[in-house]
Amino acid sequence: MRRMTPLDAAWLTVDSRDTPMHVATLAILSKPKNASPTYLQDLVKEFQGARSFVPPWNLRIRQSPLKNVLPVVEEIHDIDMEYHVRHSALPHPGGERELGVLVSRLHAHQLDLSRPLWECHIIEGLENDRFALYTKMHHALIDGVAGVRIMQQSFSENPRERGMVPPWSKRAATQARRERVLEDAAFSPTGWAQHALASTRSKARSVAGLGKTLAHLVGASGNRENALTSPYDSPKSVLNKRVSPPRRFGTQQYDLDRLKKICKAADVSLNDVVLCICGAALRRFLLESNALPDKPLTAGIPVSVRPAGDVQVGTAISFILSTLGTDIADPVLRLKAIHASTDKAKQELQALTRKQIDAYTLMVMGPFIGSLVTGLGGRTRPVFNLTISNVPGPQKPLYFNGARMEGIFPVSLVAHGQALNITCLSYAGKLNFGFTAARDTLPHMQRLSVYTGEALDELEAILVPSGKSRSTSSTKRKAAAS
Fold this sequence. Notes:
Family: Belongs to the long-chain O-acyltransferase family.
Strand order of the largest sheet: 5-6-7-2-13-12
Domain O-acyltransferase WSD1 C-terminal: 314-459
Structural class: alpha+beta
Distance between the termini: 43 Å
CATH topology of the largest domain: Chloramphenicol Acetyltransferase
Strand content: 15-25%
Number of strands: 15
Mean pLDDT: 84
Radius of gyration: 22 Å
Order of helices and strands: EHEHEEHEHEEHHHEHHEEHHEEEEEH
Number of helices: 12
Pfam family, one: WS_DGAT_C
Low-confidence stretches: 172-207, 471-477
CATH class of the largest domain: Alpha Beta
CATH superfamily of the largest domain: Nonribosomal peptide synthetase, condensation domain
Catalytic activity: an acyl-CoA + a 1,2-diacyl-sn-glycerol = a triacyl-sn-glycerol + CoA
InterPro entries: Acyl_transf_WS/DGAT, CAT-like_dom_sf, O-acyltransferase_WSD1-like, O-acyltransferase_WSD1_C, O-acyltransferase_WSD1_N
Largest sheet: 6 strands, mixed
């Protein structure tokens, strides 16, 4: 058993019917050559027949002596696999729209907190003889980087490899040694108090070193000449209202080479280009609704602080904040403003120690989590307007027992005051965008996914004039729920 960190526990605390706190991936696979007619039924039986489990797939929440205060997770080995592994089929014609409708519906439902916090849905009926795996897990147990690493270790680069087991039965090489079991005394009232006191002292020492960074953040608020974006300096917008359970999901896929050429031409990072085309799409989307704020929208950008190879349970992220330049019509000037903002934010974060980063993350995210707990989320000024994340993934094609993964798309979470999330995941020379939104708050969200492609065309035409617009030749995928 292990005790959850305060940030991980917070994701459990705010989990509700309106705001389920799980993240997911949608993997599109093509069946191996000469697959039998019962290939998918056999795959379901194999997945459901697993009897050997590894963390985080076999972890269940066990409450601490004080309810909802630093709960612990315990390993169990009696898991109802027919509940956790489910078989679905798409209606004809099995296109991206039908898939998007199903994924949106599956993503809207809470996980059962009395069971291990995950589900896997095997989805057949996708056109061109393909199938999909939609797998979701609670954010208290996993973040995007760890999720991608688990996925990589569960698949193979060898299309001929067979005898592979499901991810919940495969122990990563970096986890060959089991996590140390805490003594039962740690879960007594005395043990809990000692743990909490030690944690508080450690955080207090870290907070003492944050003065300079916090002063910079406060000084940046309202200062249009300062590139640093500060919390709560974001305008109110339609993105920051209350949400209800229904979800909408959309995807786009672009060649990484296209974005990298823009990066080179403008001397900016890939994240800067992603933020720029998202900013352009949001500007157009809100202008069409006559809802564009005068101040630029801001993005919270998760930054992994997870060591290489680490797939331990829990989240290991911090945040930087950036402008999205939605007040700037010129795409090149918008890109420059975003680059200045992210560059300054990264400098501030890199100046902190790991403990100071943990304390800083709690200071930035604490009020956001608190607003969800108290019911103020979506009723007060947002910390930032939306989350935009870019997770590096495998750059070689992956296979599972001969089935080739054609693409993988992230499906993230939304909350009161955060009705939209845009997450990107690179894979095999492509950058895959997943747009997750609260359907009732943003009923036409699928337009955003289309607008990012047109914004990319525009930026490319200006900065890489030798490369013609790819609006018709680039690979694009859309999956939108009605």
